[in-house]
# Entry
Amino acid sequence: MRAVRILLALLILHGSVAAANDTSRPPLADQVKAAFIFKFCSYIEWPPEIFSTPQSPIVIATFERDASMAHLLTETVRGRRVGERPVQVRTLSEHEVTEGIHVLYLGDDTRLVRSRIESVKGQPILIVTDLPRGLEFGSGINFRREDDRIRFDISLTAAQSNRLKISSRLLTVARQIEGAEP
Amino acid sequence: MNALFALSSIRHKLLVGVLLTTATALAILGAIFIIYDLGDYRDRLVEELTTQADLISLSSTAALEFEDRETAKQTLASLRLRPEILAAAIYDRNGNLFARYYASPAHIREIPVRAEQPSIGVDADTIRLFRPIYNDREIIGSVFMLAQSGVKERTFRVLLIFLSIAIVALAASTLLSSWLQARITSPIMEVTELARQVVNERNYNLRANRTTDDEIGFLIEAFNQMLSQIGLRTSELERSNSELAEQIHERSQAEKALSESEYRHRTLITTLSALTWRADAHGDFSATQTAWDSFTGQTPRSHAGRGWLQAVHPDDRELVSQLWNQACEESVAFKQVFRLWYAPGGEYRYVNFSAAPLIDPGGQTMEWMGIVDDIHERMQATEEVQRLNAELEHRVQERTAELENANRELESFSYSVSHDLRAPLRSIDGFSQALIEDYGDKLDEEAKEYLDRVRNGAQRMGRLIDDMLNLSRVSRMELVRRPLNLSEVAAELLNELRQSEPQRSVYTEIEPELLAYGDSRLVRVVLENLFSNAWKYTAKRDDAKIRFGQVEFEGRSYFFVRDNGAGFDMKYADRLFTPFQRLHDNREFPGTGVGLATVQRVIRRHGGRIWAESELDKGSTFYFTLTPSEELHHDKTPNSAG
# Structure
């Protein structure tokens, strides 16, 4: 039973990845995550004062160790805008100050994630993680795999502490929502 | 029939007109209404479904972007709350079916496998919509929706409403139309009926009632005026006709009278024994005088001008000529009797020559016309009658004179005889008496009786002579009239009679104040005679009664003397007043027979009349009056001679 389901999911994923980008080597899941990260930008509202102009870019940042993701993101956002804003991808060095960024992908390094989240705490930055129970570390959105599909959980508590507003439409597709009002 | 048909046609037209108007208005209104309503309905439908699709789009953008089919399905499932939505689907950006929804499995096949171009299609039953799903101006998929359009039901409903309105409106129109008809056609009907009546009865006094002030009212008014005009004209025409007829009648009457008159005159002239002639204004005879010429033997030449006078008797000619000239000058009718030569008989004959001038309106004499009437025989007869009359008159006068003479002689003779006879009678009576008285003792009884008889005869003769003298005196005495009281005279006379025979008992009754106007001596003679007769003829009655009074007959009053004596037979009544005629034996009732004759003569001299009524043994009544009567011919008593 389970075998059949996996087989089916693999077939579908394979088909869809092949249709999206047949030249890419990186795993399909990462491509989907990159695309999701870009799409999140549309549903997040940052405090307006952090943008100097309406055309100021939205900056998505990764650390060097997630360079593959940075690469995928760069591919994804090329030529695309969120509203009037262009989207830029910046790769941060290990100790680089996290200033002028709006989305920070932290990947799955559990050790680093905690310190990084601590370092940007209070800043209007959407932190996206890909950890089991990632929200407990303080991230805003945490990917999860469900039936071979990429899904995500959202923490409204984290978002609010970082002064971010998350669209309710995004909430409808989230699997778990932490901090939601009862 | 035609009128009714025409009217029903008007009614029909009115109804059709009103209904057509209403129907047209309704149709236009209805069409606009339906088109508008359906358009509006469709717009609302589309708007609603679009909104619905947009809502679905909005709530499924995240699901699409993050490829969350479950969430999309759940979003679509919320459409269960909208039962009119039959099916819905969401396609991804590649046009592949992403999630779908259907109200019932029957609608599964309505959902396309691939996305289509954005479109909205509405048909009678369904509305079908494809709409792109945007996220941040980027098409990320499309939404499909299929819903019940309800256009058919809506159309039915709107049509039903409209039809109901139409029915109500048409019914109202019909009502309105019938009201209009009543307002329009009934006055017209009335006028039509009136017109028919006018045509049939030729009665132009009929009038229509004006009930409204609109054009029909005006029409009726005009109709009435027209009628009165026609009536006026007709009556004028009739009057003029009747005048004409009357004139024609009068003229024909006049012509008839003229022809009758002409005929009468022609007949008169042809049947007249008289001849006619004509003369000009100056009295000269005109050329042709056939009748004249044949009478007088003259010719047109000889009678021309005043030549006709030559036919007149020479003794008359001068007078006739003068009178004719005078008549011609004065232009007055002329009439003259003269002698005219009558050629066929060869003698002059008397003619009545009459002429009349014909005068024109200017008063000028145009001509003379005349007739000559032969009155010769008549003239001769008249002359003979006149001659005979004169002769008769002459002889009557002669006889009357002779009779008067004889009468006078007779009267004087009888008077003298009576007078002269009295002396010898007196000597006969006187000497007879002397003989009896002086020589009575020497005479025997027989001689005495003879002498008594001589004396009786002499005395009777003396009385007779007295009566006759009386009668003659009554006739000759002059009347001296004065008012008399007859009652007093009667009382006096009856008293004398009572004294002369005191042994008799007679009941007398005299009406008082019986007044008369007459000669006292003669009236006394009358009463004396009547009362002595009554006294005498009641001698044999024990209950003798004499009445003197007055009665009224036919408006006149008469005196009467009534007794209940011997009376007489009425068949001898005509001899009662004749002298010497007696109805009773002299030995029974002695008398001379002159008394009543004397009475009658006195009464006649007064101008009155007397008559008697009687019955044998019952008595007599003598009625008389002393005043002249206008009705002398009613005198019943016969005239006594002398």
